[in-house]
Each structure stands twice: as C-alpha cells, then as structure tokens.
Amino acid sequence: MEVDDGSEARVEMKGKQSVVMLVGAPGSGKSTFCDAVIGASRRTWVRICQDTIGNGKAGTKAQCIKSALSALNEGKSVFIDRCNLDREQRAEFLKLGSAQIDVHAVVLDLPTQLCISRSVKRTGHEGNLQGGKAAAVVNRMLQKKESPKLIEGFSRITFCHNDAEVQAAMGTYSGLGPSDSLLPGCFGQKSQDAKVQVGIMKFLKKAEGPSPVVSKVNSDQSVASIGSSEKKGASLEREEMPVLPNAPQKEESKGKDNAVQAIDKDVPTLAFPSISTADFQFNLEKASDIIVETVEEFLPKLGNARLVLVDLTYESKILSLVRAKAAKKSIDSSKFFTFVGNIIELSTKRALHCNVIANAANWRLRPGGGGVNAAIFKAAGADLEMATNDRAKSLVPGSAVVVPLPSTCPLYNREGITHVIHVLGPNMNPQRPNCLNNDYNKGCMVLRQAYTSLFEGFLSILKIQETSVTKRHEELLHHSGRGPDKSVGNGDLKNKRDDVDASDSSKKSRGSGNEVEIDSTRPRTGNSDSGIQTTDRGMTKAWGSWAQAFYHIAMHPERQKDDVLEILEDVVVLNDLYPKAQKHILILARARGLDCLADVHEVHLELLRRMHDIGLKWVEKFLHEDSQLVFRLGYHSAPSMRQLHLHVVSQDFNSVHLKNKKHWNSFNTAFFRDSVDVIEEVNKNGKAMMKDDKSLLSMELRCHRCRSAHPNIPRLKSHIRNCQVPFPAFLLQSGRLVRALDSN
DNA sequence: GTTCTAGAAC
DNA sequence: GTTCTAGAAC
C-alpha cells in the first residue's frame, strides 16, 4: 500500500479508483491519452476499448461494461476508450460510479479538421476507421455530440481544446497515485456560445435584452467547483495535482480558449529537446533522471518562467519517463511540463508560446546533421548562422551558448522566439566523434552540465531582461519632470499605468514603423506588456501612453466600473468614451498581447465569433430601445488604441465627437473591417486582411449612404442628418449591417 | 484616442 | 473675419 502523505488514515485500503470516460471523435487522441497515462502512472489502469474488446470484431457496449466491472473489482482504475459523444451512450458507464469510485470525463474537443486528418492518415487503427471514409464518419459523429455535464453524474469533467490542454490533463492523470483523487467540478469548458444571430431578427418579440451588469461567469457548468460536487465522497482527496498554467483547473482560464494562449505569451518559456538521447544514444532512464533533477534544481530560481521538454510524438519514451518522474517528485507542472510538437513551430502550430528554444547542437555549431539542429537552423535561416558565429565558433560537450535572434529572423517573426540556446551534450554513439564508450559516469556528469548550462543561459536572459526593464523604468522616472498629466475629462483613464509599459511610450518615436529598438542584449518575452507590437511584417509599432487605456481596462475592468457595461471572462464591453454615433460601444478582448487585427490568427477565431455575438447581443438591446437604428460591427485596420476591440456603431454618426476626416473615414472606408469579413478571412486564411493605407483616412468625404462627396465635415454632417437613401449593396450583404427586421 | 493651434481656405 | 484642417503634443 503506497502512502504519499498524511491522508492515509482516511483512504480505503484499496486506494481510490476512478472510471475515466474519454469523450471525443475518432482521431481526437483518446487512445493516445490512455496510453500516455497508463505508461506514466503509479496507479493501475485498464483501458477498455470497444474496438478491441471483441477479439478482432467490433465489440459491444455490454462487453465494455462487463470488463470495466471486473477491472474495478480487482481494484483497478478504468479508462473507457470509446467516443462517448452523446449522453445516452455515457449513461450506462456512469452507473459504474459509487461512493468509492469517481466517474470522470475527459473531453477531447479538438478541431474537427485535426481529428479528421488524423483519422484519415492513420493506418492499422483498431476500429478500422481510416482512409477517406473517416472524414465522413467523424463529421457525422460530431454532429451528434452533446457535451457531458456534471448533472449526468460525473464528479469531474475536464475539457481539452488543444494539445496543450490535452497534455495538461495527461499530466494531471499521470500524476495520480493509487490513493489520490482529483477535485470534483467542471474544468476548462468554453463559454457557451452566445448565438444571437438568429434571434436578432425576432428581437422585437423578445422581452429581455442584456443588462449592464457585471457577470463573472456565463456558463452554467463552470461555476461548479470544489464543494459543489453533486455526488460521491470526493471530499477526502488530498491536494489537487499540480496543473499547467493552461490546464483547465486554473481559475483564469475557465471559459476561455484562445485567450489562454495569449496569456501564455507573457510567461517566459524555454522549450528544449532532450539532449543526447537521440543521435547520441544516451540511456533514456539516466537522461530522464538528469532532466528532472536539474529542472528541480532550477525551478526555484526561475520566477514565473517555465521550462518545457519537447519531443515530436506522443509515443516519445523520454517524455513519458520525464512526465512520470516529474509527477513523482511533485514538480510544479505549471513551471515544468512535457509537450508534443515540433520545436520550431510550437507557437503557430501548437499554441504554446516559447520565447526561447534550445538547440541540440553539434560541436561546430553548424547547420545540418538532421534532427532538431537541422530543423532549427533551417527554420531560422542565415540569421541564426551569423548570430551564432558572432558568439562562438564551437562548443565543448556540457556547454551552451545563448544566441539572440535578430528581428529579421523568421523564427523571431513567426514564432516570437527571441533567443536560441545551443547546447551540446555527451555522445554515446560510437559512430560519432568523441564517443564516451559507454562511460556513464562521465556521460551523466556531462549531460548534467549540459542542462545546467542551458538553464543558466535561460536564466541569464531573464536576468538581463529584468535589469533592463528596471533601468528603463528608472530612466523614465528621471526624465518625467512634468507633473501629473494635465489632460482633463478622462484623465483618470488615461493616466493609470501599471508601471512598466509607461517606459516604452516615453522613449519611442511613435509610429515611424521601422524602429526595432531591441539590442542584442535586451531580450523580450511576450511583447504585450512592453507596449511594443509586432505586426505581421515583423515591424514593431510602439503604442503611446494614451493608447494604453483599453489595455488597462481589459486587465482590470473592475477598476473602471463606471465606463464598463459588462465584464465577462474573455471580453469587456464598454461605451466608447468619445462615441461617434448615437450608439457606439466597444467589445474589448481581454487576452494579453492581442492588440490589433495584425495579432489575430486562427486560434482567435472562436474569440472573434464570440465578440461578434456579444456585439449582436447589445445591438439587440439597442434595437429594442430604438428600432430605427442600424448597426455595423467591425475593426479598425490600424487602431490607435492598443487591445483588440470591436466597434459596434450605429450608422447615424450623429455625434459631436465626430470631428474630422479621420474619424469619418475610419468608419466609412475600407479601413473599417467588418467583423463578418474578418471572421471569414481568419477562418479561411488564418489571418485578417488589413487596409491601413494612410490615404484611406484622408480620402474625400463621402456619404455612406448615397456616396455623395462633401467638402468638409460640417457639410457632410448636415448632409447625413437627412440622407435617407438606402445603404449601398455592399453593406446590405453578408450581414454587415444589423437592423431590426421590420424597419426599412 | 483627444486637444491645441497655426495657418489655409473661404 | 470666421471656419476648418492638419500636424504636433500629450
């Protein structure tokens, strides 16, 4: 009987058992999940798979239940590895639960396309679901899916929407010892989509609109948490297993999806491959010990920074060894975890933002050779070769060299990687130079040195950054001889600064567009707090101090209650301080580092849709008050204010704040990007088009209805007060304009 | 983003 | 003279 802590007295002799029902389409990674946990866990698990249970033939649900029961009788925990997509399918398995046996669901809600492509590609799948047929099957199944709910009888439900969350859940379950249990509750569920599109046309029949209240949580399930467990004695569990920052348990990630990733951006992260275990054939058991021990030693020094061990496949032996050993040592898995992905595309393909990556280099620090080294040099191009050459010509085993990437480097632009740390481990491969001939005494020492050098290197990057920020902050304090800002009116909003971001704005020449004021010794982590924004083209743009107001509201909406209409987990709704029309509100994304359309990528699609839906919800309310209004929802191509915000603006443009050409043209030329179009483009191309030609904002003034030209703003305004010509066809299409059904 | 204001346009 | 714009400062 294994005993981990003081709670043994309260735990049954058998230990705690679980039934974990995987819920997900074919290709969502259910079997991989089970195998990873079973491989790493100290608890005995049995995977019940309907595809294999029938001895070659497809099995039945009854067979699954029978063998689940017998495994449970033997004191084992059970994975139910079948799709379990609808409630009816799950009901039978829920009956397996009892006072001693928790029933959990792990929902692998990965993008449909991903599931399909995995199903299509794989061969020899147990369920014989492969080839072109898979796509149709997956699609059909997903149409029937019903998200599991606590009320069905689960004591815990974990939703995973991307690989990072899947890995987090794997870590959580892998770490379960024989007598541990997990907190009850529902974790990681996305907010329920506010689909208002259909309802909007019937708004007049509806009684209630959204009210300006502060609502914390908008999903029925995510409020369920500790203490509210609906069944079973889950109250005796020991402390929750450590979780990843983007694991579902974390308070701030509840109900969010892509926002989670944006928060990630601010956490300094080193992604590193296992050193010497591939080509250099170092023993995996020994290597995994060294990795875990060295990580354990360094974590306390790293502050909020993270270390992530990366390998290419879920079958990676080194990952599962390390995962198990880290769990055994109770290493904080928000600070250190394993991750499956290609180290050169973690940010774009796997939604894991790493600002530093390690390269398993060769001693000559040359490209090629294969594996990680070849991939990194190839992805980083000549920039990395040159930058490396500046720093070192060769490496001895056990050492590392930190190479800052120039801003022109593709890895920097695409992935946000600011530094590559080359590290050289010991060689156990007789085919390679300097083989240690199986001398593991020396080998382990050198490998330990290698990881130590690597982590020291990462630490030095963090330190430089820290001092750099402090210094810049001090400079600011010295320079700002001017007293309190003299701006009036909204001064409160404008002057509130958290601290750091003020430094950039005071020093940078604004908007010149091409200054990359990052010297080689000044690394960056995420780019959001710095107030510097990296655009698609790799240029940086500095946000002025006045441009920070939305950022502060997004981070601390509760401090600005007067200006805020609604606070949700991922979005804040507020009145535009200088409305350009009778109704003009902003739907502000709260994700850190998401400042404008240029920052928007495929991972933000759900957020964009949600912002649109929330906008429509408010439109519905406004139309209820005045059915004559017509609304347009969209983004400015190049906003003046930092923090992605969707304008919801009525088309009367009747406002004293609409004063100049720029105001008009920013809402009435292609500079204004309709939300519907943005969503479609991101869905199709993974990014939004931007029309940020300066010329657009200084175009001649034309009526947005009849397209007549006017010499100046006052004349234009007097014209639009009376113009009743129907809107141009372009605006009437695709739902660009939102209006009451029975108004003109 | 707004405010302020010089100077162009009328 | 007044109105309006546009650029700089914040």
From TrEMBL:
Residues 323-586 form the Macro domain. It comes from the Eukaryota. One of its GO terms (biological process) is single strand break repair. One of its GO terms (molecular function) is double-stranded RNA binding. Gene3D superfamilies: HIT-like, Leucine Aminopeptidase, subunit E, domain 1, P-loop containing nucleotide triphosphate hydrolases. Pfam families: AAA_33 (PF13671), DcpS_C (PF11969), Macro (PF01661), zf-C2HE (PF16278). Residues 216-228, 523-536 have a biased composition (Polar residues). GO terms for cellular component: nucleus. InterPro entries: Histidine_triad_CS, HIT-like_sf, Macro_dom, Macro_dom-like, P-loop_NTPase, Znf-C2HE. Residues 229-241, 249-258, 474-485, 493-507 have a biased composition (Basic and acidic residues). Residues 211-258, 474-536 are annotated as: Disordered. This is Transcription factor bHLH140 isoform X1.
